[in-house]
Write a structure and sequence with these properties.
about 140 residues, 2 domains, Succinate dehydrogenase assembly factor 3, chaperone, SDHAF3/Sdh7
């Protein structure tokens, strides 16, 4: 009888890539546990300056999407943040390139934000690594 129970407890290959099927995605976390997981991942895996930027971004994004009623948007939002949490926890995000299909789906405003982020990262790296680097003057204010 014990052998039969042990055989029942063996994980099956159904739904995995080894069974020739598409891997079953993990269940989505509800918003509050996912939010907490993201902040814990930042605290554990990111340097202090990256953590501050990341925490503020997470907080603003979750606030901005708090009143969303469209289930498709909610699932997409939670899926992307859960994927991000897995990447941060696995530390396989460093040097990774962004998927072209995700960039193609971005709005002009999102691409602009991404460009600004890229420029600020480049400037920071230059300032840290090149003692002769002088940051460019800020652009003139529009009136």
């Amino acid at each position: 009888m014990r052998a039969a129970l042990r055989l029942l407890a063996v994980p099956s290959g159904v739904g995995t890539q080894s069974a020739g099927l598409k891997q079953v995605p993990p269940a989505l976390l509800p918003p509050i546990p996912l939010y907490r997981r993201l902040l814990r991942a930042h605290r554990k895996f990111l340097p202090a300056e990256m953590r501050v930027l990341g925490d503020e971004y997470i907080k603003s994004e979750f606030r901005a999407h708090r009143d969303t009623d469209n289930p498709v948007h909610i699932v997409g939002f939670l899926t992307e943040w859960q994927t991000y949490a897995q990447q941060i926890e696995g530390e396989n995000w460093r040097g990774e390139k962004m998927d072209k299909s995700k960039v193609d789906k971005m709005s002009d405003q999102q691409i602009g934000q991404l460009y600004e982020l890229m420029n600020s990262i480049r400037e920071r790296e230059l300032a840290e690594n090149d003692p002769d680097y002088q940051s460019p003057p800020p652009p003139p204010e529009k009136k």
